Amino acid sequence: MILDYLSEFNSTILGINYRNQELIRKLNPKPKRKIADNKLMAKKIFSEHKIPTPAIYRIIKTERDIEKIDWEQMPKSFVIKPTRGTQGKGIKVLYGKKKGKLAWIAADGRVYTPYDLSKHLSDILTGRFSLGHKRDTAYIEERIKIHPTLKPYSYKGIPDIRIIVYKGIPLMAELRLPTRKAKGTANLHAGGIAVGIDMATGITTTAIQRKGVDFVGDRYTILETTPEPPHLPLRGIQIPYWTQVLEIAAKIYKIVELGYLGVDIAIDREKGPVLLEINARPGLGIQVANQAGLLERINRVKGMKVKTVTKAIRIAQTLFGGEIEEEVEQLTGRQIIGIIETITVYPNPLIKKKRLKPEKIKAKIDTGALYSSLDYQLALRLGYTFLEQYHDLIKTNFPDINQAKEIFRQLKEKYPEDTRPELLEHFSLVKSGSGFTIRPTVRIPVKIADEKKEILFTITDRSSLNYNAIIGRKDLKGFLIDPARIFGRPKLKLDKNEQN
Amino acid sequence: MVILTGKPDLATLPLNILLVLALIPFVRYVIGFKHWRNYSTLSFALSAFLLISTFKNATTGIVFWLYFILLAVIFATMTRILLKSARLHYFARIALIYTGGIIGVLTGAVITSKLTPFNPFKFNFSSLSLVLIITALDDLTILQLRKDALETVRRLGTTIILALASAFLFMYKPWIMYLYYHQEIVAVIIAAMIIIGQWKYINLVDILRFKSILDEKQE
Fold this sequence. Notes:
The structure holds 2 protein chains of 2 kinds.
Chain A: H1 2-12, H2 16-27, H3 30-37, H4 39-48, E1 56-60, H5 63-67, E2 78-82, E3 92-97, E4 104-106, E5 111-112, H6 114-125, E6 138-141, E7 160-166, E8 169-177, E9 193-197, E10 204-213, E11 218-223, H7 242-256, E12 260-268, E13 272-279, H8 286-290, H9 294-301, H10 309-320, H11 323-332, E14 335-337, E15 340-345, E16 359-365, E17 372-375, H12 376-381, H13 391-395, H14 401-414, E18 424-432, E19 435-448, E20 451-460, E21 469-471, E22 479-481
Parallel strand pairs in A: 14-22, 16-21, 17-20
Antiparallel strand pairs in A: 1-6, 2-3, 2-6, 3-4, 4-5, 7-8, 7-12, 8-9, 9-10, 10-11, 12-13, 15-16, 15-19, 17-21, 18-19, 19-20
Helix pairs in contact in A: 7-10
Chain B: H1 13-31, H2 38-54, H3 58-82, H4 90-115, H5 124-135, H6 137-146, H7 149-171, H8 173-181, H9 185-197, H10 204-218
Helix pairs in contact in B: 1-2, 1-7, 1-9, 2-3, 2-5, 2-7, 3-4, 3-6, 4-6
C-alpha cells in the first residue's frame, strides 16, 4: 500500500528532484536560461516580438550612472529591479511621493530618499541580489497600475499571475496577491497569498497563505477571504483578459525556447496583460494553490506537438479546466459531461471469460434521442453473442411501417419473454432516417464520467456512423451537458439519420 | 568503549570525510532537508569531532561545541541587526558580520577558560575546532542577508544535526575498525554519490509538503 501511495505520488506531484533533473536540465539549456536570468535582455527580446512589458525609464550599469540620476525628474511611482535578481529580492516598488519632500513611499511603508535609493542601486550593482553574487545591472521601470478587478484584493503592492508552461502549453496558473503581512509583496514565504486559477475559465479556486514553518518547511492554510478588511472572498475572482494572459504565456515558448518555465504577468488597468518576467526555475508551490500535481499534467501533454498558440490554449483549457465544474457538480449533485463523451462499456456479465475486457469508446450524448443505442459489432466483441441469432433482423431496414409492425408482432410471438436470453429485455421498433428497424434492446453496464450504471441499449448496425454509441435522454438523468466540453470533433460529418 | 574519546583518531579521517560528502547530498536530495553548503557542514563535522574527542565525556564535548556555535551565530546576528541602519556596501557588511561571529567565539573561549577547567586555547585540537567553526560563518552571513530568519534557523538546525551525526561516525569504533580494514568501501560510497547525483524521485520533504494534494485527490 505504501508502495502504491509512493508510486501515485511520483506520477502526480512534481518534486524538486524531477524538476531539476528532467525538466530544467533537459528542457532549459544553459544558453536559453541566460535569457530568463537577465531581465533586461528578456525585455528587449519580448519587445521585439510585440509582447507588452513595463516601460524602462533608466538602466544603471555603474556607480557613475547612479550619480547622474536627476531624482527631481523621476516620476511619482516607479520600480527598481536588479537584472539578475531571484525570488523577488532587490525589487523596490515605490508607489507614491512623500508630500513636500524629495522622497518616495514603498509598499512596506518605508520612506526612501534619493540617498537610500542610490545605496540600494549600489547594492544591486555589487551583486547582493544576483545569482552567484556576480556584479549586476539595475534598471528603473514603470509601475503597473493595478486593474480595478484585482485592486480590492491587493494590499498596496502589485498582484501578478504566474503560469507554468510546458513546451508551449500552459499547465497551471496562480494569482499572487500582496498582503500586509508580506509588507505589500506577493511573496508567499513572507505571507503573500497564492490563489489557484481554473485554466478553462480564469476563475480563482483555492487560496493559500503560509501559516507557519517547521523543520520540514512552510506550512500553508487555506483561506476563504482576504485577511485584511473588507474580507473579500478569494474564490470566484474572474481574472481579466484571461485568454490574452494565456496567449502571452503560450507565445513565450516559441520566443525563448525554454521547455519548462514560469511566466509572470500583471494586469495593467490601461494596457491590459503585461509581461513582468519569465523564470527558468519556477517553484513548486503552485501545486498547493491549485491542489493538483504538475507532473500529472505534464504526463498528459507529453508527446503532444503543438503548432499554434490557439491549439496550446485549447488543450490547456480542455484538459486542465474543471475545478469550477467540480463545484457545479457538488452544488447540483450532477456530473458535467460534454456532447461527445468517452464512456466505458462492460462485457457480458454472464460470461466469465478473461479475454473479455471493457472497452472505452466515444459516445455521442444525444439529448434529441430518447433511447440509447449501441453498435452491433461492439456488442458481439463484448460477449453479447446471443445477438447473432438476430443478425439478419439487425441488418434489415424496413421502408414500410406496416411491414415493420408485422415483423415486430411475429417476433414477439416467436420469442416470448421467458424464452429470451437473460439480458434481452425486449425488441424495439425504431424509426430512423433510412426507414424502420427492429432492434433487440439489451441491458448493458456502462460507466459515464464517474457513474457506473446499466443502460438499456437498442442494438443496431452503426458501422457507417461516427460513433459506436449514442446516449439518449432517458439515460442522462444525473448529468449536466456542457456543449463547450468537446473532447475532439470528428473529422467526418456528423450523422443526420439518428432519430428515435 | 564504543565511541573513541580522549584523542581524535585521524587515521581513517580522509575516508570518513568521503562518507560525509556522500551524506550531504543524500540528506539534501533523498530526504529533502536544506542545509548550509558542503564546506560549512564538513567544517562543523570536523570541529565537532575534534572538540568532542578532546573530552573524555562525549556529552560535555557536545555541550561545549553547541555553545561555541550558538555564540558565533548570536554575535553574528547581533552585528547584522546593529548594522541594519548603517549604510555599508555589501561585502563590507559581510566582513563585519563575520567579525561579530569571531568575537563571539573568542569571547566564549575566554569565559570558558575563566569559569571552567577547560581552556580551549591550551589544546591544539580544540583551538583548531574553534577555527573551523569560524571559517564556516561565511555561509551564515550570506544566508542571513539573502534568506529570512526562519530559513536561516532551519538550515542551521539541519547542518548541526548532520555535522553531529558525522562526528559520531568519525568516533564510532566498530565503524572505524571496519573502515580501516575494508577501504574498498570507498567504491560503494562513490557509487552512492553517483546514484544520489541522478536522483529524480520525490523526497521525504516533498511528500510531507504535498501530501494534502494527493489525499484530497484520493478522497
